[in-house]
Specification:
This is DnaJ (Hsp40) homolog, subfamily C, member 7. InterPro entries: DnaJ_domain, DnaJ_domain_CS, J_dom_sf, TPR-like_helical_dom_sf, TPR_rpt. It holds the Pfam family DnaJ. Keywords: Chaperone, Repeat, TPR repeat. It is a single chain. The protein is mostly helical and 464 residues long. Among the domains are: 125 residues, Serine Threonine Protein Phosphatase 5, Tetratricopeptide repeat; 66 residues, DnaJ domain (Helix Hairpins, Orthogonal Bundle), CATH 1.10.287.110. α5 packs parallel to α7 and α21 runs antiparallel to α22.
Length: 464
């Protein structure tokens, strides 16, 4: 029996010794890989360091420090999500691994999860109460939470500049947080800063082409730039990635409704049904007050219809709303200027044409400006047609007839018994009638008068 027992022990040792030696060799080899990884880490060759730490983990998968080292390398490569997984594995293997908890907190912080980060830093302080790094990172987490709170209030109040400010501050602590970047991009789009918003959304889509929020913001920028068909494509793609994305669904519905209503208005306008077109453009304007560029076009379209319906003051008001929404909208300035001309508000027309010509110095715009300036000049002198009470196309005979009638009406002898004030007024009017007839009864003078030229400057005395 004793011999058999000795034989069993010998056999067991013979079996275990190779295993023990193999495990020991694996640990030595893993440690060697770790040291090589450390050397590359010091040289800032993080990709090679990552490879050697991975080899160390493969040789010794239950060593918490190896996961911690690889996590540190991934953090230097800004691969925070992967680093977070390694940190969590490290603290699962060793809950007292202080560096593991600290790095996990930093990963959470960089990804914008301030609550989870705070829990990690509090655990570090339980293990090492005097850790100044953990104390500072805890304050950073609290700062992020405060910026999130302020941004939420700002968004509800539609104070999008405040939200952008808060997100910029939060991103200083959480540079890899897609949520903060998306919120900033959305607010930039709502502020009309489309290139900046598109840049942020595109950066995220390069890293994650399936990010529904980034697809939504990309579509929002196109939608607000009046590229509705392309915008709908992005909204549909966002809904494909996230069927419950409420903002994308609402934007997609608005985009389709806006396009349909605008096209319907255009159609009936071309058919000459101006009343229907006016109503359709009005309905389209109620769909989405945030779509500045499209609404500017709708106001201008409605102004065009208004001018056709002789609603000139309403047309001017619509053009004014259009240029308030889009200061670069030349067509709205031109439409308003024409309405000003039609209502004889020449100073306002000149102002609009000057703005247009300064923006786009074309021959057509120069001609329009000169014409408005001429009409303004003409409006500031006596209107001899009004003085005689005749139309601008009156014939020579009609002018003579009107002159005789007005001359008799205002002749001084007719008012000899009136007060001195009335006599002076009637005498003034009598002279104006004479001036008017002197000019309008002379074909050459009348032609020069109609063209806006100064008759006195040309040495053509108008007589009395």
């Amino acid at each position: 029996a004793r011999k058999l027992a000795i034989c069993d022990v010998t056999a067991t040792l013979a079996t275990r010794i190779p295993i023990i030696r193999a495990n020991q060799n694996a640990k030595w080899e893993a440690e060697s890989f770790k040291e090589q990884g450390n050397a590359f880490y010091v040289k800032k060759d993080y990709s090679e360091a990552f490879n050697y730490y991975t080899k160390a983990i493969d040789m010794s998968p239950k060593n918490a420090s190896y996961y911690g080292n690889r996590a540190a390398t991934l953090m230097m490569l800004c691969r925070y999500r992967e680093a977070l997984e390694d940190c969590q594995q490290a603290v699962r293997l060793d809950n007292s691994f202080m560096k593991g908890h600290l790095r996990e907190g930093k990963c959470h912080l960089s990804l914008g999860n301030a609550m989870a980060a705070s829990r990690c830093f509090q655990r570090v302080l339980e293990l090492e109460p005097d850790s100044s790094q953990a104390q500072q990172e805890l304050k950073n987490s609290e700062s992020i939470l405060e910026y999130e709170r302020m941004a939420e209030i700002g968004f509800e109040k539609r104070d999008f500049r405040m939200v952008v400010f808060c997100m910029d501050r939060a991103l200083e602590y959480a540079p890899s947080c897609h949520k903060f970047k998306i919120l900033k991009a959305e607010c930039l789009a709502l502020l009309g800063r489309y290139p900046e918003a598109q840049s942020v959304a595109s950066d995220i889509l390069r890293m994650d082409s399936t990010n529904a929020d980034a697809l939504y913001v990309r579509g929002l920028c196109l939608y607000y730039e009046d590229c509705i068909d392309k915008a709908v494509q992005f909204f549909v793609q966002a809904l494909r990635m996230a069927p419950d994305h409420e903002k994308a669904r609402l934007a997609c519905r608005n985009a389709k409704a806006l396009k349909a209503k605008k096209e319907e208005g255009n159609k009936v306008f071309k058919e000459g049904n101006f009343e229907a077109a006016y109503d359709l453009y009005s309905e389209a304007l109620t769909i989405d007050p945030n779509n500045i560029k499209t609404n500017a076009k709708l106001y201008c379209n409605r102004a065009t219809v208004g001018s056709k319906l002789n609603k000139l003051e309403q047309a001017i008001e619509d053009c004014t709303k259009a240029v308030k929404l889009d200061e670069t909208y030349i067509k709205a300035y031109l439409r308003r200027a024409q309405c000003y001309m039609d209502t004889e508000q020449y100073e306002e027309a000149v102002r609009d044409y000057e703005h247009v010509y300064q923006t786009e110095k074309t021959k057509e715009h120069k001609h329009l400006l000169k014409n408005a300036q001429l009409e303004l000049k003409k409006s500031k002198r006596k209107d001899y047609y009004k003085v005689l009470g005749v139309d601008r196309n009156a014939t020579e005979e009609e002018i003579k007839k009107a002159y005789r009638k007005r001359a008799l009406l205002h002749h001084p002898d007719r008012h000899s018994s009136a007060s001195s004030e009335v006599q002076k007024e009637e005498e003034k009017k009598f002279k104006e009638v004479g001036e008017a007839f002197s000019v309008l009864s002379d074909a050459k003078k009348r032609s020069r008068y109609d063209s806006g030229q100064d008759l006195e400057d040309e040495g053509m005395n108008m007589g009395g």
